[in-house]
Design goal:
Layout (H helix, E strand, L loop, with lengths): L28 H19 L3 E2 L5 E3 H8 L4 H6 L2 E3 L5 E4 L4 H10 L8 E10 L11 E10 L4 H17 L6 E7 L3 H16 L7 H6 L13 H7 L11 H17 L4 E2 L11 E9 L7 E7 L3 H4 L7 E7 H10 L10 E5 L5 H13 L4 E4 L4 H10 L4 E6 L8 E8 L7 H13 L3 E2 L11 E4 L1
Parallel strand pairs: 1-5, 7-8, 12-13, 12-14
Antiparallel strand pairs: 2-4, 3-4, 5-6, 6-11, 7-9, 9-10, 10-11, 14-15, 15-17, 16-17
Length: 452
């Protein structure tokens, strides 16, 4: 009688799933720069009394196809669209404005007009990943809906300029400004462009040949060398501006001058969709390679109508958080979070005391962390390496009664002002009923006994 040997093969190692191309995991200094951008945006938008809004990350596909136009690259090539289980076509948002406009109409936000809105969050586009651009990316966004006056354009531009300055990245960033005119001006300009480019259609790039009849303004911002030969001599908007459009643009530029916001005219800066009117703008830099736009926007007085609503003037802008964070990181701004007090626990009996002390310190606004793992010396070294301004060593002396502990304070830098941490520790101990053997409070240096 023979027995079969166990010949089962070992289980194959489980493959670790990799990140999806065009996505990112943000950590360390990059994450601190990202958070700094968002925190600065939130603080500044409150100064301008912009109200926070949150919209779904997916909408019915029609929200974007109608607002962005079926012929745009975003709709035809870059949107993440899918059918849900009910057979309805949905799309992950590629931009904020269309969803905000939909929310404005479906929630009755017209009662708040003119409405100043601000939001930030993730967006999705299937495009080639490159420096500062991802398939899931993040933006800050500000809109004023229901205001047709040029003062609204000025307020948004001044707000954008302040955000860039408070981020510390305004040096080397230029505001490029143009006008697209009112509807009659734009239509006359569009017809002139079609006539001009038709004469050289065969020499244009394939993309521009396709855009010629439907979206000729987009040819002006083409980067293809075959198009640039002709765009320099193409008709420009100034020749077609109505008196009203000239006056509107004049008030925008005068407002920027009054606010001290520098700008430069960029006559080839355009927005291809028909609902864009008047002001178009971009803040650009040469520090991000070819993708130099850090913030852009314009006036879109026809968008609400494109979504089935009444005529509603509106203007807004958006900026990529990743790009802003890259500029913040390159600027050398110190974004290390403050670290006031490190509690180094030297005995197991003192762990509960450390938990109490850390909770009370944090509740008073003192940044605190506890080091109770590993070898004793390594705990101290790690606390120092993590950047703590003051290290508080805690132990329970041998044979000491319960609720009796020894503490010692050490400064990691002789030039630091430790009064905040020292006063906070003294106040916490007094509030918890502990007394020390130094009646004038805690000092840096010797061991101090505290007890109840």
């Amino acid at each position: 009688m023979s027995s079969d040997k166990n010949t089962s093969a070992p289980k194959p190692a489980t493959a670790t799933p990799q990140a999806i191309r065009g996505t990112q995991d943000i950590f360390g200094p990059d994450a601190e720069a990202f958070a700094f951008v968002v925190e600065t945006f939130e603080r500044v938008r409150r100064l301008y009394r912009f109200r926070r809004a949150e919209m779904p990350v997916f909408e019915k596909t029609a929200v974007f196809s109608r607002s962005l136009g079926e012929t745009t690259d975003v709709v035809s090539k870059e949107m993440y669209s899918f059918e849900d289980r009910g057979g309805e076509s949905l799309t992950l948002r590629p931009e904020f404005t269309a969803g905000i406009a939909r929310a404005y109409l479906t929630n009755g936000w017209q009662q708040h007009a003119p409405l100043k809105l601000a939001t930030h969050g993730p967006l999705f586009r299937y495009e080639r990943p490159q420096k500062g651009r991802y398939r899931q990316f993040h933006q800050i966004d500000a809109e004023i809906i229901g205001a047709g006056e040029p003062q609204a354009d000025v307020e948004l531009l001044v707000m954008a300029d302040q955000i860039l300055r408070e981020l510390g990245i305004s040096d080397g960033v230029t505001l490029q400004l143009n006008t697209l005119g009112d509807a009659p001006s734009r239509e006359a300009w569009r017809a002139a462009l079609i006539d001009y480019f038709r004469a050289v259609k065969g020499e244009l790039s394939e993309d521009s040949q396709e855009r010629l009849e439907k979206n000729p303004l987009r040819i002006l911002d083409s980067k293809d060398p075959r198009d640039k030969v002709f765009t320099a001599d193409a008709p420009m908007i100034d020749a077609f501006l109505s008196d009203e459009a000239q006056e509107f643009f004049g008030k925008v530029t005068a407002g920027l001058d009054a606010a001290g916001v520098a700008w430069t005219r960029a006559q080839t800066l355009v927005r291809g969709l028909d609902y864009y009117r008047h002001t178009a703008f971009e803040f650009v830099t040469d520090r991000l390679g070819a993708q130099g736009t850090v913030l852009g926007g314009g006036r879109y007085d026809g968008l609400i109508e494109a979504l089935g609503g009444p005529h509603t003037p509106a203007v807004g802008w958006a900026a990529g958080i990743e790009r802003l964070a890259m500029l913040v990181g390159d600027s050398g701004t110190n974004l290390s979070p403050p670290f006031d007090v490190a509690l180094v626990v030297e005995s197991a009996e003192a762990e509960g005391f450390a938990t109490l002390l850390s909770a009370r310190l944090r509740s008073t606004g003192v940044t605190t962390d506890v080091y109770a793992r590993g070898k004793r010396q390594r705990r101290f070294d790690k606390a120092k390496g993590d950047g703590a301004e003051m290290i508080v060593t805690l132990q329970s002396p041998t044979s000491a009664p319960a609720s009796t502990f020894a503490i010692k304070l050490a400064a990691t830098n002789a030039e630091l002002d430790l009064s905040k941490g020292v006063c906070a520790i003294s106040d916490v101990l007094a509030a918890e009923g502990y007394s020390s053997d130094l009646p004038d409070g805690i000092v840096v240096g010797p061991w101090i006994t505290v007890s109840k």
